[in-house]
Amino acid sequence: MQDIFLEYKVFIVFLHVISAVVWVGGMIAMRYAAHSSFLEIESPQKRLERIAHALKRLFAIVLPFVIILIVTAVFMIKGYGLSQSDFSLLSHAKEGIWTLMFLNLTVMIFRRNRGERFLNEGNMVGAKNQLELIGKIMVPLNIVLGIVAIFLGTYLSSTL
Q: Theoretical Cys-Cys bridge with 19: which of 27, 65, 78, 105, CB 3.0 to 4.6 Å?
């Protein structure tokens, strides 16, 4: 694995960085650009439908990048030999953050799907309960965690 990393280092690091940018940037755009537009939709049903649809598209876009992020992280940890270095704790903390973000994303996908099911059944209260937590808590949490992980990655790469 280390040989592959050394041969394709620039490409692997690029994929890792662009994956983080797409994931975190997508959430920032959704939360702070699209979300306020959704709130201007007067019909509660249409608003929830648009939110569910936009979240579905966001998750479809970021999921491949999340997988790339995980795969490239393994290559980088092995390639740089971080597990056996002074930076072991920092690299594992960074990947731990991405793991928490992935678990949060998984729950968001589950809640969005359940919210859409409630919408299709005409259960507006159930749909709102499922979708509201995503925008108010879960996406902002992942944004903060993502920014911390990107900072740790930047610090880590500047010391290697």
A: 65
